[in-house]
Design brief:
The chain has 228 residues and is an alpha+beta fold. The protein has 9 helices and 12 strands. The radius of gyration is 19 Å and the shape is globular. The model has no long low-confidence stretch (mean pLDDT 92). GO terms for molecular function: DNA binding; DNA-binding transcription factor activity.
Amino acid sequence: MEADTESYFKQVNLFAGLSEDEIRELSSAARKRSFRSGEVIFHRDDPGQVLYVIKEGKVKICLISPDGQEISLVVLGKGEYFGEQALLDGLGRSADAIALEKIECYTLQRSDFHKAILKNPKIAISVLEVLSKRLRNTDQQVEDLIFLDVYGRVAKKLLDLADAHGIQASDGVRIDVRLTQQELASMVGASRESVNKVLGYFTDKQYISTDRHRITIHRIADLRRRVY
């Protein structure tokens, strides 16, 4: 497994600045984990001692209120990582992490990750860049909730997902994330009923189509015009 881990780590942007020996050392410390679709990887406020690097599958990072309401912050896929914030500040997890589909990932303990940072500070810079990007995205989500209607929020989220997880198809761009109406509702801060109405409208307009919880965008320009 170590050789497979080493080969994969060489493809991960986070470790791009490491030497062959440093990659090999980090790979020997990594452990492979698998999670079922819908399985909770960690809860908010759990102790944070592990970094997760996704090899296959999709993970959502979300906040869940005491009464069960959910806001999805980001969907992460192959080559991306999560759990880094708690590793840096030593506090509990800041959100929940849930597998959207079956995933495989590599885990690194806090001490091993810190050793890698000390040997190559570029890793810390990469982590800071990702943290900054995620903070900006969170700021944007707040702004969207204030200024956009549900149609605009759904249109924008579909475009964002297509940009991050889209696969070019003959008839448009297919979002390679399993999206139920409830999942999408949690991403845009709306009720499932409202999202159902919006998706029906976009489907009637032939902006999108759905098949087995996968959405394909056919008319990106029209959908983009609907954001504002």
